[in-house]
Write a structure and sequence with these properties.
single chain, alpha+beta, 9-stranded antiparallel beta sheet, 2 helices, 9 strands, about 15% helix
Length: about 180
């Protein structure tokens, strides 16, 4: 009998803390605001160019916040090639860096490939100001002849969980790019 009561009490406590977590699903668009890219791809990341959309899930808890970021590929000039294709996570669900009303997700990679070193950094900062969400993104990718380095910003809208899950599973369409 004691074991049953302990299990029931633990379940109630766990459900209360889970229910206290705020879940936010965002769809953001990003437009290049600063371009330091060099080489043959530099023109693609010209200031003012529309990149694509980004989907994110932010689980805001009292003790920690988790974030997942999904970004369709390809982007920029080849957006239509990403239509109706499953979206892979750019940042898997992990602990977010929280600074006031800003939530940051970071993905870093560095390794040797094809006789050269590859460095990649993607940083996504989602900020809530007066119930409006925005995105500031930094993309850095360097490998032998490719050097992309740009900052992009954009506005975000809150979407429901069903839409969020559906677009990740089935991929974006041209109508998903409209805000």
């Amino acid at each position: 009998m004691k074991k049953i009561i302990i299990v029931i009490m633990f379940s109630l406590i766990a459900n209360v803390s889970y229910a206290a977590t705020e879940k936010v699903y965002l769809k953001c668009k990003y437009i290049v605001t600063e371009n330091r890219s060099t080489g043959s791809l530099a023109d693609i990341f010209e200031v003012g160019n529309f990149g694509h959309i980004i989907l994110t899930e932010i689980l805001i808890g009292k003790k920690n916040t988790k974030i997942a970021v999904y970004r369709p590929f390809p982007d920029f000039d080849s957006i239509d090639q990403s239509f109706n294709k499953k979206i892979e996570a750019a940042v898997t669900k992990r602990k977010a860096e929280v600074n006031g009303n800003s939530y940051t997700a970071l993905h870093k990679a560095s390794f040797d490939i094809d006789g050269g070193k590859l460095d990649s950094i993607d940083r996504y900062v989602f900020t809530k100001t007066d119930n409006n969400w925005s995105l500031k993104m930094r993309n850095l990718f360097r490998h032998t002849t490719v050097d992309t380095n740009y900052i992009a910003e954009g506005k975000c809208i809150i979407v429901d969980k069903k839409y969020y899950k559906n677009i990740i599973k089935k991929g974006p369409t041209s109508s998903d790019l409209e805000f």
